[in-house]
Amino acid sequence: MVVKTITITKDAxxxxxxxxxxxESFSELINRSFTKKRDISKFIGAWSFLSEEEANKVHEHIExxxxxAGKQRRVELMKHLT
Length: 82
Hints:
Oligomer: single chain
Number of strands: 0
Mean pLDDT: 86
Helix content: 55-70%
């Protein structure tokens, strides 16, 4: 495997490091971050087998996860600002 060395500021390093998942390398983080996003229209109807009640539960769960992630991002940001 060919590797390249890059120079980044400490601030940029800290931002990258805080974005890493547990056990993830910087190369994996960069590849994950810059992988082309999939066309969401390919997923239309993928969960059409769910009842309205089940779909609402899924939606509520997604919103809960998003809120929790948002709170965690704010906590991380505040750590960097103090």
